[in-house]
Write a structure and sequence with these properties.
Layout: E1 9-12, E2 15-18, E3 23-27, H1 31-39, E4 44-48, H2 63-76, E5 79-84, H3 96-105, E6 110-113, H4 116-125, E7 130-133, H5 142-150, E8 155-157, H6 164-173, E9 177-184, H7 196-201, E10 221-224, E11 227-230, E12 245-247, H8 252-258, E13 262-265, H9 272-291, H10 300-307, E14 314-315, E15 339-349, E16 354-359, E17 368-373, E18 376-382, E19 386-388, E20 393-394, E21 403-407, E22 417-421
Parallel strand pairs: 3-4, 3-13, 4-5, 5-6, 6-7, 7-8, 8-9, 9-13, 12-14
Antiparallel strand pairs: 1-2, 9-12, 10-11, 15-16, 15-22, 16-21, 17-18, 17-22, 19-20, 19-21
EC number: 3.4.-.-
Domain Peptidase family U32 C-terminal: 338-419
Enzyme class: hydrolase
């Protein structure tokens, strides 16, 4: 934990280095994503169990899967946090004690919570679990942080609406771990306070059912007496309330110097390609800055790498101040990614230079593909012939999860990924 009196940097061999490196915290909606996040460099992963989590549509983890995930993470020295961040109703109380005890017994390092009921219950029946306050509590001032510290919490996850100056003051005034978002979706309402989904679809956003009403397309009308007069015609782009996604890659040095303890990536519903790409980029940025902060520069290749998995435009949002016109999306709520995830490496034979790969999207001979992963430098090559598991030549890799083989000139490793440009 980085406290306000701790040194962030020291002079070692005549060079300033960061000695309090922040945790890189990644999302995982299932066990495969957890393993990818850890393999690609996450220091910790947050997941949801099948109870008490705000991502009802994610695969989510059984207790047995949580136990397996913890064991895998332990091999890398990584931590697992479980979200239990719903606002509970009476019907959610039965079974809570047993669930929290099961998490503790599975070796989970901490839970992310919003409801005082769950905080009190965890303290009483599962005292080995660290308790982190969820962003659902919308904490953006030091007095509120101080309150939750006095309640015995180990960490506060700040609201996405918190600015750099507010983070600075919080770190100066309160000795507690601070977690802040650095990448992912932004809520168009006030995070943790939106009930659009409840009103429009009867799905409770504070119990895992958010339907993302703000991402829908809308027609806009003006009332003229009893008449509804459309403000746009059929040729205009539809009205939307979407915010651009958060992207703080350029602000990572500032986050580190502010003493933020955990840098959080949003996206438990995202693909393994998204998780691998975003985690690997931020891992490189954090490590490079901490090794030599006075000579650090953001590389253009890192910016481009994040674009390969982005399906919305991005902005720094509230970190640099109040968002303006350019931080919102008008007439659109998404854009096509520049690259498509094509396959996951399962094995590689150095003698034959044959890769065994699990297909994730269509590709064929003649396609130029790119390989990336933590053990290799990104490289591209053209796919020549493709074979199935039985050695039959294929005209294309057509089927999801199909196991195929083809020649790759450079060595690749399990969990490396292959993508192609759209």
């Amino acid at each position: 934990m980085l406290l306000k009196n701790d040194k962030i940097s020291e002079i070692i061999d005549g060079k300033r280095v960061i000695v309090k490196k922040p945790e890189l915290l990644a999302p995982a909606g299932n066990l495969e994503k957890l393993k990818i996040a850890v393999h690609y460099g996450a220091d910790a992963v947050f997941i949801g169990g099948q109870e008490y989590s705000l991502r009802a549509n994610a695969d989510n983890f059984t207790i047995e899967e949580i136990r397996e995930g913890v064991q895998f993470a332990n091999q890398y020295g990584a931590k697992i946090y479980v979200t239990a961040n719903i606002y509970a109703h009476n019907e959610n109380i039965p079974g809570l004690e047993e669930y929290l005890q099961a998490l503790e017994q599975a070796g989970v390092h901490g839970i992310i919570v919003a409801d005082p009921l769950i905080i009190e219950t965890a303290r009483r029946v599962a005292p080995k679990l660290e308790v982190h306050l969820s962003t659902q509590q919308s904490i953006a001032n030091w007095k509120a942080v101080q309150f939750w510290k006095e309640e015995g919490l180990e960490r506060v996850v700040l609201a996405r609406e918190t600015s750099a100056q507010e983070i600075r003051e919080i770190k100066e005034k309160v000795d507690i771990e601070i977690e802040a978002f650095i990448h992912g979706a932004m809520c168009s309402a006030y995070s943790g306070r939106c009930v659009l989904s409840n009103h429009m679809t009867a799905r409770d956003s504070n119990r895992g059912g958010c339907c993302q009403s703000c991402r829908w397309d809308y027609d806009l009308y003006q009332l003229d007496g009893d008449k509804e007069v459309p403000l746009f015609d059929e040729n205009d782009a539809p009205f939307a309330m979407s915010a651009k996604d958060l992207n703080l890659i350029r602000a990572i040095p500032a986050m580190i110097e502010l003493g933020v303890d955990s840098l959080k990536i949003e996206g438990r519903m995202k693909s393994i390609h998204y998780v691998a790409t975003v985690v690997s980029v931020y891992r490189k940025v954090i490590d490079a800055y901490c090794a030599d902060p006075d000579h650090f520069v953001i590389r253009e290749e890192w910016i481009k790498e994040l674009d390969k998995c982005a399906n919305r435009d991005t902005a720094p949002s509230f970190f640099t101040g109040m968002p303006g016109y350019s931080d919102h999306m008008y007439g659109s709520h998404s854009r096509k990614t520049t690259h498509e995830f094509a396959g996951l490496v399962l094995d590689y034979d150095k003698e034959t230079q044959m890769v065994t790969l699990q297909q994730r999207n269509f590709f064929k001979p003649g396609d130029e593909v790119e390989f990336f992963g933590p053990e290799i430098e990104n490289f591209t090559q053209v796919v020549e012939k493709i074979w199935d598991e039985d050695g039959n030549e294929l005209d294309a890799a057509r089927h999801p999860l199909q196991i195929v083989k083809f020649k790759v000139e450079r060595e690749v490793f399990p969990y490396n990924m292959m993508r192609k440009e759209n």
